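Box 4.2: Ligand-aware structure prediction
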Amino acid sequence: MAYYVNRNIKMTWWEKIYLPEIIKGMAITSRHFFMNLFGFVPFLLGTKKERPIMTVYYPEEQVQYPIAYRGRPVLAQNEDGQPACVACGLCEIACPAYCIHIEPGENSGKQNQYERWPDVFNIDYAICIFCGNCEEACPEEAIFMSDDCEISMLDRKQMLYTKEQLLTPVADLQKRIEFTRNMSAKWNY
Ligand code: SF4
Ligand code: SF4
């Protein structure tokens, strides 16, 4: 569901004097503060299995991200183990951070049934801005934004992912694939 910001809201006199709105905001913040503070007591005492609070004990607990979430981009891997990518280079051109590097491989008639595929396909997550342009640009449904955001490293060089590291079975991407198809239909591409 898309959210739109209405920038032409006319404030009432009550809102223009700010003080009541500040008090209202402080009340909401305080409510959440005390809810979080006391919310885990029954959980710790073992009387409740779930805590009625917003925070999660990461990494033991994980947040279920919405399907529109843009984590790290990954390459779809067909059932035969090959990437769905044909190395057209559109995602590389569309990438505003210049973090995709592709070297195409051409078929001389011996390698496999594919006419063209990426010999090299690297994404440098250290400079990726997770914009999703690569996913939008791809004509082959070969690159998708996953819900994985756990890619922090101690060494930036380790954030350069190769084709083998990027490959993700197409079955694991089904929900995102459906989502992008629906969005493309909506935008009338
Ligand atoms: S998400 Fe954006 S920045 Fe990252 S690889 Fe794709 S196009 Fe480039
Ligand atoms: S991922 Fe898609 S857009 Fe990028 S090179 Fe492969 S087929 Fe082309």
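In the box above, the bound molecule is iron/sulfur cluster. The chain has seven helices and six strands.
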